[in-house]
């Protein structure tokens, strides 16, 4: 285990550097601003290092000895104030100039990640955890800002200041001052990084246990009724407290180690400053240094050590930022499962005939869903697919949309293999009313108009009328401006399905798929919708996936599926006349309807 961890360190470092380099294109867009910001940074540090130099001259000018006349060094004092003002000005100018760079990089990366997420295939989105992806996206974009902030505003300025101070100490003073100063800095940095790395696992434990405790608390509240049903309030609180006990232990260790880090840093600074002050004081006593030199060396030390106080925080933040950014870049590196093939052309829909030829498919290699499925939906005709749950009915619509590619066989639209055409053109030709309608947390108008961005209000309302939902919408206080809530939860299942039907109508596709399109409707509403669906389907190639057989009696052909095979096919009349699976299902549903009606 230890060997593996060490072997991964170089790989991790390479990824970190690669990810940092990966930021370059996003920053390079405003390279002029970046260069001016870096110039401002350099000027700010020059002014900052100049302050102790002028302060030395001021102290020496005021160090009057013997009969010398004390004169106010006005120009030096003005220069001192000017340098402080310049340092502040160039620091703020740097921040202002770089703000556009930083926030534009965040914006572009956020757009790129969301675009990439939409490109990823359905399999990925069914397996992902929405909350985790949301956190990765948020942390990833925030990490870009943090990394740029710490590099440009903390690490680079500190490095520039070190270089300038080193130049002054080596050229104007005995090298021992520079040696002691930078030896102290080196020990300080080594100690800080070592202790920070050691104590980071306490922080990781705190974060993990905090998230776990929060998850348990939220889960128990979401399942409030279940907790009450079984009288397990004490059990939920105990589970919550057990997690918090671990969090408390990690938090105490984290704080204790932080105190040790702070004390160690303070001790290193104290030793270094003491040694420097002893050497400088000895120089003053020996006459080789002035009081101004003593003040200058002390000021340099303070200027170097004040930003170093935050080194542990900055280092930890950079480590976190790099880890978060790595998750984001790994997401961007994930290749979509379904991609347009080289040379793919737009789908050319003439009549709209759909054909499945020997289609084999499984979501996993060891579990086949469809076995040699063959059927044709002639142009302008309606074909229905029925069967028990798990028979593979809804898989047909997913394959037609090319959310997945078939394992064998092919799917053709007007003779064109769906794998050979551009995905966007394929999906533009197909409209669907899904079984589980999910709406945006927007207005009803937005959700219907989502099918066609250029639709007029009249088009939207006509689509709503055809879906028999216009009168309901008009009766609402806000009408079409009614917000439907998250996932459309403010509407009933039947109302959501009618919005989905209106949306499909507005899209004006050549091919229609109704996947249990009336499953959430009562009998009266179902009949009204069926009439509308028949009108809509009259001039469309229509594939109907149905559970209620009463909804597909007018289909030109009905396919009965079992375990991924088409076991029966024919019209409603012919299938009833031939004893088989369809006739059994029809008889069973008729008995259920009679039972409900009693």
Give structural notes:
The protein has 598 residues and is an alpha/beta fold. It folds into four domains: 9-173 and 312-337, ABC transporter type 1, transmembrane domain (ABC transporter transmembrane region fold), CATH 1.20.1560.10; 174-288; 340-429 and 509-598, P-loop containing nucleotide triphosphate hydrolases (Rossmann fold, 3-Layer(aba) Sandwich), CATH 3.40.50; 436-508, 3-Layer(aba) Sandwich (Rossmann fold), CATH 3.40.50. Helices cover 66% and strands 9% of the residues. The chain has helices spanning 2-22, 24-28, 31-62, 74-119, 122-127, 130-172, 175-222, 224-230, 233-286, 291-308, 311-333, 393-400, 423-428, 444-449, 457-466, 470-475, 493-507, 523-537, 572-577, 581-597; strands at residues 354-361, 370-377, 382-387, 408-413, 416-417, 430-433, 511-515, 541-545, 557-562, 565-570. The protein has a six-stranded mixed beta sheet. The chain starts with a helix and ends with a helix.
Question: What's the layout of helices and strands?
Answer:
Blueprint: H1 2-22, H2 24-28, H3 31-62, H4 74-119, H5 122-127, H6 130-172, H7 175-222, H8 224-230, H9 233-286, H10 291-308, H11 311-333, E1 354-361, E2 370-377, E3 382-387, H12 393-400, E4 408-413, E5 416-417, H13 423-428, E6 430-433, H14 444-449, H15 457-466, H16 470-475, H17 493-507, E7 511-515, H18 523-537, E8 541-545, E9 557-562, E10 565-570, H19 572-577, H20 581-597
Parallel strand pairs: 3-8, 3-9, 6-7, 7-8
Antiparallel strand pairs: 1-2, 1-4, 4-5, 9-10
Helix pairs in contact: 1-11, 3-4, 3-6, 3-10, 4-6, 6-7, 6-10, 6-11, 7-9, 7-10, 7-11, 9-10, 15-17, 17-18
């Amino acid at each position: 285990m230890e060997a593996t961890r060490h072997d991964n360190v170089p790989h991790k470092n390479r990824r970190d550097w690669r990810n940092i380099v990966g930021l370059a294109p996003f920053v390079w867009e405003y390279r002029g601003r970046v260069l001016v910001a870096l110039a401002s940074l350099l000027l700010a540090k020059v002014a900052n290092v100049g302050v102790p130099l002028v302060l030395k001259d001021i102290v020496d000018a005021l160090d009057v000895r013997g009969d010398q006349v004390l004169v106010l060094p006005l120009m030096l004092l003005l220069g001192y104030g000017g340098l402080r003002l310049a340092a502040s000005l160039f620091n703020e100018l740097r921040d202002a100039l770089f703000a556009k760079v930083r926030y534009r990089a965040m914006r572009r990366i956020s757009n790129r990640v969301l675009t990439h997420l939409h490109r990823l295939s359905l399999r990925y989105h069914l397996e992902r955890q929405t909350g985790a992806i949301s956190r990765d996206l948020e942390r990833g974009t925030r990490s870009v800002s943090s990394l740029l902030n710490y590099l440009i505003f903390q690490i680079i300025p500190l490095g520039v200041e070190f270089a300038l101070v080193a130049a002054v100490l080596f050229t104007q003073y005995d090298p021992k001052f520079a040696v002691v100063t930078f030896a102290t800095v080196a020990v300080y940095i080594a100690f800080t990084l070592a202790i920070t790395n050691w104590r980071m696992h306490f922080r990781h434990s705190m974060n993990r246990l905090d998230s776990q405790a929060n998850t348990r608390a939220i889960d128990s509240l979401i399942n409030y009724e279940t907790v009450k049903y079984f009288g397990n309030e004490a059990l939920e609180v105990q589970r919550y407290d057990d997690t918090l006990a671990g969090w408390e232990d990690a938090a105490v260790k984290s704080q204790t180690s932080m105190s040790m880090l702070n004390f160690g840093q303070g001790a290193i600074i104290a030793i270094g400053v003491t040694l420097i002050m002893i050497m400088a004081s000895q120089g003053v006593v020996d006459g080789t240094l002035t009081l101004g030199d003593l003040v200058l060396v002390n000021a340099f030390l303070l200027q170097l050590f004040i930003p170093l106080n935050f080194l542990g925080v900055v280092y930890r933040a950079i480590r976190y930022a790099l880890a978060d950014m790595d998750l984001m870049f790994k997401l961007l590196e994930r290749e979509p499962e379904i991609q347009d093939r080289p040379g793919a052309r737009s789908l050319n829909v003439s009549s709209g005939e759909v054909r499945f030829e020997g289609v084999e498919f499984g979501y996993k290699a060891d579990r086949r869903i469809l076995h040699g499925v063959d059927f044709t939906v002639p142009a302008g005709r309606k074909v229905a697919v029925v069967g028990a749950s798990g028979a593979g009915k809804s898989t047909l619509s997913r394959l037609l949309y090319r959310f997945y590619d078939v394992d064998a066989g092919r799917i053709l639209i007007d003779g064109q293999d769906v794998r050979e055409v551009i995905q966007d053109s394929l999906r533009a030709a197909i409209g669907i009313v899904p079984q589980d309608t999910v709406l945006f947390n927007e207005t009803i108008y937005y959700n219907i108009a989502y099918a066609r961005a250029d639709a007029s209000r009249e088009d939207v309302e006509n689509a709503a009328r055809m879906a028999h939902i216009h009168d309901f919408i008009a009766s609402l206080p806000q009408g079409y401006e009614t917000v439907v809530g998250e996932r459309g939860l403010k509407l009933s299942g039947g109302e959501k399905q009618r919005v989905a039907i209106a949306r499909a109508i507005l899209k004006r596709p050549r091919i229609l798929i109704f996947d249990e399109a009336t499953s959430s409707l009562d009998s009266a509403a179902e009949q009204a919708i069926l009439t509308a669906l028949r009108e809509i389907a009259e001039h469309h190639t229509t594939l109907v996936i149905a559970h209620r057989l009463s909804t597909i009696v007018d289909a030109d052909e009905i396919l009965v599926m079992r375990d991924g095979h088409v076991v029966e096919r024919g019209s409603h009349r012919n299938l009833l006349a031939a004893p088989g699976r369809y006739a059994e299902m029809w008889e069973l549903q008729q008995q259920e309807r009679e039972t409900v009606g009693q």
